[in-house]
């Protein structure tokens, strides 16, 4: 096939011979402890490949995650079983996804007995997804999955979304077969024309139809080696895809509901709890009756959770912390410089850990000149995004965007 | 969050004490700081008393820098038993007082006290908690929280630092409690709301220890069973990047999520040029709806 020839990536068994054991060298005392620590540091460094270049966030990403619930998920090559391992990793994935993609939405689909069943609606509510996932642990896994039905379902759900949003499907596929009602190639073409990006993570072995699906729709295909690799593949797909970055930029009108009706406090007559109303998001289910809520500033419809799109006037509703989640991309922390440890400092500034012989390298902040251990360095650069030293110095704490 | 109900084996408490001399209650009467410090030390000791495995760290936040008051890096102080008091309590009290004196003495005399940089102190606390979790025995259930005792006001200048710190705390499941001694702190209140901690503005300073012991001493698992001060209403409006004003309806750049109060053709933060055709695609949709 022409597709296969274009794919230049060689298979693992075709690559050269790797002499992994030659990297290990003993020090003067015949110990490898220092070397092991060094390896750990290197691995940690490698894991943190900073995203450089202009900031392009995946705002308005819409991702459907389809989980295979067929017999193949019972296999125990991932511990305790493929299915339980998947659920555990998905929880992590969901948290990370909403962390990376403010104002994005996610939905869960089960590939069950040749059908595609909706588990959760597309929404931005983390708790709802996690709760639904936790309820799955005792589910019986039988039958075959159907890739085509899943694709059709995803197409139906993602099609009506607005054009400026990126639409994606992520399939976690354990089976080596699929039971389809028709020609899957036409479905793939339909998804391609719709611009829905499909990615697949295979739990067993590479399957050609999955590879073709990913190639045609611009997604990524990966097959897991073990649970650690599975985790890294899943977490890789939390960062916004390049296609989403190429979408047209625009200013989006957005409402910030502020829930405090301050007039109530001055007026003694209505000092009681706010009137009981039904929120718009649960209107169909007949739930969501209560006093508290966020009111759309344009039309005063009530919503119980943010972010949401107002059903009445179409305004996107969000709160300031949702947007603030992404500010660390805008104002990144300056990377620390790596210096050989020669007794410059007794302990790490941030965590008070004493530097020992194992610390071959320490890290120095170029602005506040404090020294940090490699563990704190990785915490600061991956999650914290604030230099503890700079943030507590009066002339350094403000990191304004470069005027260039 | 499911295992919130189970009591933890070990609880780490990091207390951040604001010692900035320009807080109103200190400028009015400098001796109050000693009273407040005594209350905080007594509170810290009661935390240690609750469980043998409970751990403590205290960070002093002065206007020129933040520093650990307890534990000390390197060797701990040499303490002998006094009046039958448990040695650890004596150690905590002596170390904190000695290190605080050092911290205050080290302030540059020519500099004017600015605002308290609490975000930096919280960042230090988070690194400390991360180290504590790394080094802990596997299988030990650890909860960690941060208590900020401050009398300063908060300004928008530290907004980004605050938000980064709050989200990291939320990710690491660290609660941030805030005990305000003077003014209402809306930014820190947001942090409490994000991380699930408690916010309390102390009505009278004399009863500080009582407030600390009643409100902030119980662990996360016990808090659900107590009647504690409510969350209150948190103002979550966004401030626009151009005038720093709070908005209810604004425009957000789809590339970098900057907030603006008026439509402008170029984003000032990421220099993206917007398509002016924004409203046009909506019009045909509306027509279709009518048909």
From TrEMBL, chain A:
Any one GO BP annotation for this protein:
nucleotide-excision repair
Q: Which InterPro entries match?
A: C1-like_sf, Ssl1-like, TFIIH_C1-like_dom, TFIIH_SSL1/p44, VWF_A, vWFA_dom_sf, Znf_RING/FYVE/PHD
Q: Which CDD domains match?
A: vWA_transcription_factor_IIH_type
Tell me the keywords, alphabetical order. DNA damage, DNA repair, Metal-binding, Nucleus, Transcription, Transcription regulation, Zinc, Zinc-finger
Care to name a GO molecular-function term for this sequence? Answer: zinc ion binding
In the UniProt record, which is one GO cellular component term?
transcription factor TFIIH core complex
Where are zinc fingers of the kind C4-type found along the chain?
Answer: 296-313
Extract the PANTHER family matched here. Answer: GENERAL TRANSCRIPTION FACTOR IIH SUBUNIT 2 (PTHR12695), GENERAL TRANSCRIPTION FACTOR IIH SUBUNIT 2-RELATED (PTHR12695:SF2)
Supply the NCBIfam families for this chain: ssl1
> What is this protein's record name?
General transcription factor IIH subunit
UniProtKB/TrEMBL annotation, chain B:
Gene Ontology annotations of biological process type: nucleotide-excision repair; regulation of DNA-templated transcription
GO terms, molecular function? zinc ion binding
Tell me where in or outside the cell this protein is found. Nucleus
Alphabetical UniProt keywords: DNA damage, DNA repair, Metal-binding, Nucleus, Transcription, Transcription regulation, Zinc, Zinc-finger
> A Pfam family matched by this chain, by name?
Tfb4
**Family matches, as InterPro entries:** TFIIH_Tfb4/GTF2H3, vWFA_dom_sf
Q: Which GO terms describe its cellular component?
A: transcription factor TFIIH core complex; transcription factor TFIIH holo complex
Top-rank lineage group of the source organism? Eukaryota
Principal location class: nucleus
Q: Does the keyword Transcription regulation apply?
A: yes
Q: Does the keyword DNA repair apply?
A: yes
- Function per UniProt: Component of the general transcription and DNA repair factor IIH (TFIIH) core complex, which is involved in general and transcription-coupled nucleotide excision repair (NER) of damaged DNA and, when complexed to CAK, in RNA transcription by RNA polymerase II. In NER, TFIIH acts by opening DNA around the lesion to allow the excision of the damaged oligonucleotide and its replacement by a new DNA fragment. In transcription, TFIIH has an essential role in transcription initiation.
Its quaternary organisation is:
Part of a TFIID-containing RNA polymerase II pre-initiation complex that is composed of TBP and at least GTF2A1, GTF2A2, GTF2E1, GTF2E2, GTF2F1, GTF2H2, GTF2H3, GTF2H4, GTF2H5, GTF2B, TCEA1, ERCC2, ERCC3, TAF1, TAF2, TAF3, TAF4, TAF5, TAF6, TAF7, TAF8, TAF9, TAF10, TAF11, TAF12 and TAF13. Component of the 7-subunit TFIIH core complex composed of XPB/ERCC3, XPD/ERCC2, GTF2H1, GTF2H2, GTF2H3, GTF2H4 and GTF2H5, which is active in NER.
Q: Which family does it belong to?
A: Belongs to the TFB4 family.
Tell me what this protein is called: General transcription factor IIH subunit 3
Its lineage opens with:
Eukaryota, Metazoa, Ecdysozoa, Arthropoda, Hexapoda
């Amino acid at each position: 096939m022409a597709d296969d020839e274009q794919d230049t990536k060689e298979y693992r068994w075709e690559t050269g011979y790797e002499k992994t054991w030659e990297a290990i060298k003993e020090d003067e005392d015949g110990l490898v402890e220092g070397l092991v620590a060094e390896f750990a540091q290197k691995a940690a460094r490698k894991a943190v490949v900073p995203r450089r270049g202009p900031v392009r966030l995946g705002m308005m990403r819409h991702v459907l995650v389809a989980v295979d619930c067929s017999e193949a998920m019972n296999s125990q090559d991932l511990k305790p079983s493929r299915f339980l391992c998947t659920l555990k990793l998905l929880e992590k994935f969901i948290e990370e996804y909403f962390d990376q993609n403010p104002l994005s939405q996610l939905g869960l689909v089960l590939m069950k007995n040749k059908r595609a069943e909706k588990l959760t609606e597309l929404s931005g509510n983390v708790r709802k997804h996690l709760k639904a996932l936790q309820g799955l642990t005792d589910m019986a896994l039988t039958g075959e999955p159907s890739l085509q039905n899943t694709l059709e379902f995803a197409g139906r759900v993602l099609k009506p979304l607005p054009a400026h949003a990126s639409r994606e499907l992520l399939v976690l596929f354990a089976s080596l077969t699929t039971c389809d009602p028709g020609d899957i190639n036409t479905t793939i073409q339909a998804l391609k024309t719709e611009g829905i990006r499909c990615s697949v993570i295979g739990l067993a072995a590479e399957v050609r139809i999955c590879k073709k699906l990913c190639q045609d729709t611009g997604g990524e295909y990966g097959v897991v080696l073990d649970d650690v690799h599975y985790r890294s593949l899943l977490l890789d797909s939390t960062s916004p895809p390049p296609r989403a970055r190429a979408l047209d930029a625009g200013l989006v009108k957005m409402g910030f509901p502020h829930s405090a009706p301050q007039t109530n406090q001055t007026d003694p007559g209505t000092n009681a709890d706010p009137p009981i109303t039904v929120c718009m998001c649960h209107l169909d289910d007949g739930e969501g009756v209560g006093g508290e809520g966020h009111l759309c500033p344009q039309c005063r419809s009530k919503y119980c959770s943010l972010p949401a799109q107002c059903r009445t006037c179409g305004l996107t509703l969000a709160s300031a912390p949702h947007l603030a989640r992404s500010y660390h991309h805008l104002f990144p922390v300056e990377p620390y410089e790596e210096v050989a440890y020669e007794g410059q400092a007794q302990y790490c500034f941030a965590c008070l850990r004493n530097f020992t012989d194992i610390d071959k390298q320490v890290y120095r902040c170029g602005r506040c000149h404090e020294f940090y251990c490699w563990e704190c360095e990785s915490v600061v650069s991956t999650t914290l995004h604030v230099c503890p030293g700079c943030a507590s110095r009066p002339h350094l704490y403000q990191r304004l965007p470069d005027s260039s | 969050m499911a295992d919130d109900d189970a009591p933890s084996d070990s609880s780490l408490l990091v207390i951040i004490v604001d010692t900035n001399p320009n807080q109103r209650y200190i400028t009015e009467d400098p001796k109050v700081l000693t009273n407040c410090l005594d209350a905080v030390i007594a509170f810290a000791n009661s935390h240690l008393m609750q469980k043998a495995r409970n751990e403590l760290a205290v960070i002093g936040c002065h206007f020129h820098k933040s520093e650990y008051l307890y534990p000390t890096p390197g060797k701990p102080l040499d303490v002998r038993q006094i009046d039958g008091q448990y040695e650890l309590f004596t150690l905590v009290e002596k170390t904190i007082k000695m290190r605080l004196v050092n911290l205050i003495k080290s302030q540059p005399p020519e500099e004017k006290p600015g605002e308290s940089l609490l975000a930096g102190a919280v960042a230090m606390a988070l690194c400390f908690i991360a180290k504590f979790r790394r080094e802990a025995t596997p299988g030990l259930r650890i909860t960690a929280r941060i208590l900020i005792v401050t009398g300063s006001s908060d300004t928008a200048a530290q907004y980004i630092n605050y938000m980064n710190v709050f989200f990291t705390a939320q990710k690491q499941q660290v609660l941030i409690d805030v005990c305000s001694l003077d003014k209402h702190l809306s930014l820190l209140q947001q942090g409490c709301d994000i991380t699930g901690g408690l916010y309390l503005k102390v009505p009278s300073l004399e009863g500080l220890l009582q407030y600390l012991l009643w409100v902030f001493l119980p662990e996360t698992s016990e808090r659900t069973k107590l009647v504690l001060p409510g969350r209150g209403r948190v103002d979550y409006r966004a401030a626009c990047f151009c005038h720093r004003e709070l908005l209810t309806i604004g425009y957000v750049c789809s590339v970098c999520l900057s907030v603006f109060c008026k439509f402008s053709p170029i984003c000032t933060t990421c220099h993206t040029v917007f398509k002016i055709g924004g409203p046009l695609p909506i019009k045909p949709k509306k027509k279709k709806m009518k048909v």
